[in-house]
């Protein structure tokens, strides 16, 4: 996927500061979270990709299942479904 700055914080959380990451999480990993500077992406047993742009914005692309997107600047929790994408600036 290319260069990325990714830190594994614990067995349920990773932080992506730059670049792209692809996650394939089994049912046993429900709740796994990818954090970015603009939001958190919480897995519900799925396959998804997260990218962080040069401007700090982040994008989610869900390939299978559902991911909950939680923008950092709000209390929203938005579901992103299979074959959907979203962007947080």
Question: Overview of this structure, please?
Answer:
This protein has about 90 residues and is mostly beta strands. About 0% of the residues lie in helices and about 60% in strands. The protein is built from no helices and 9 strands. Strands 1, 2, 3, 4, 5, 6, 7, 8 and 9 form a 9-stranded mixed sheet that branches. The two termini are about 20 Å apart.
Q: How many DSSP E strands?
A: 9
The general outline is globular
- Structural class designation: mainly beta
How many helices? The count is 0
* % residues in beta strands: over 45%
For the residues shown, what is the average pLDDT? 92
Measured between the Cα atoms of the first and last residue, the distance is 22 Å
Instruction: Report on the biggest sheet.
Output: 9 strands, mixed
Unreliable residue runs: none
Q: Cα-atom Rg, whole angstroms?
A: 12 Å
Helix content: under 10%
| N-to-C series of helices and strands | EEEEEEEEE
Strand-helix topology:
Layout (H helix, E strand, L loop, with lengths): L4 E6 L2 E12 L8 E3 L3 E5 L3 E6 L5 E7 L1 E6 L6 E4 L3 E4 L1
Parallel strand pairs: 2-3
Antiparallel strand pairs: 1-2, 2-5, 3-4, 4-7, 5-6, 6-9, 7-8
List keywords for this structure.
89 residues; mainly beta; 9 strands; 0% helix
Short structural summary:
A hairpin with a 6-residue loop joins strand 7 (66-71) and strand 8 (78-81). The chain is mainly β.
């Amino acid at each position: 996927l290319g260069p990325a700055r990714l830190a594994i914080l614990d067995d349920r959380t990773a932080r992506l500061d730059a670049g792209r990451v692809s996650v394939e999480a089994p049912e046993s990993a429900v709740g796994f979270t990818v954090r970015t500077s603009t939001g958190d992406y919480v897995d519900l047993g799925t396959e998804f990709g997260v990218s962080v742009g040069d401007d700090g914005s982040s994008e989610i692309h869900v390939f299978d299942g559902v991911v909950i997107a939680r923008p950092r600047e709000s209390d929203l929790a938005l579901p992103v479904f299979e074959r959907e994408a979203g962007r947080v600036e």
